Fructosamine-3-kinase (Thermoflexibacter ruber), 293 residues
Amino acid sequence: MFSADYTPFFESVLFEAFGKDVEVNKYQFLGGGCINNAVKLDTAMGKFFLKWNDSKQSEEMFEAEANGLSLLIDKQAITIPHVIKYGNNNGKAYLLLEFISSAYRQKNYWERLGGQLADLHRNTHSYFGLHFNNFIGALPQSNEYLPSWVDFFIEKRLKVQAGLAYYNGLVGKDLLKKMEKLYEKLPSMLPEEQPALLHGDLWSGNVMVDSQGLPCLIDPAVYYGNREIELAFTQLFGGFDDDFYYAYQASFPLLPEFDKRVEIYNLYPLLVHVNLFGTSYLSGVERVLKRYE
Ligand code: ADP
């Protein structure tokens, strides 16, 4: 198999970032990402993380990701890799970040993450949304401001993904009708809280261990939302230790009966998965909708 030498590309990106020649001594492709190419660069200036993509939309995606990371960094609640540079180098959109070297998890790793996420969520806003749009996976995510969480969740999250699934022939009109029925019930089911700054895509694959054995978050899809949707999503694919939930609750208790709302919030990531990865995720959506017919 022909394998390209990427070194000139990497060095050109590093030149763009630092304004001088930086030699790449070694590079290593990293797996785990769903969308982009990712490498660890070993250079004379230290290690860097670089991801890139040839697709047209990627430049916008990396810009939104960089802005999301920077926003989270500013709040100083959780460790986030520093953004060094993003842009387009010879038709390749890229994002260059601080490289996170992982150590063994410290004993209080999950407890720490719970407390830190609560700290992040204490950053509030008067509206739900954000001053820029971003992406959830490879799909556009609108963050147009709205004053009500229920309206935001329905209009900017559920309807967008359900509509896209219908448009792409992944679901039928019957599912849209069931969704409409659910929308009518949501105002009496979902509590309103002050909009909180969310990571926005918090599953275990986006939590890394840093060089001190403490948590570090990557790949955000930030916006101000109801923090319940963030905690709900951590439960969808699992991987978060009980200590995480205890520490979060101890620091910033959720409203009563949160557990009953978890599956409603997770309709959003499930519909996103239907659109990104196919109809195998549909049964999860249908199971929830059946309960609210
Ligand atoms: P994608 O945008 O394709 O989902 P990710 O951002 O998830 O890519 O990155 C792919 C993998 O690279 C992650 O699963 C993680 O293991 C690793 N990774 C991501 N960011 C960093 C970083 N700053 N330092 C070190 N490794 C990273």
Remarks:
- The first strand starts at residue 24 and ends at 29.
- DSSP finds ten helices and eleven strands in the chain.
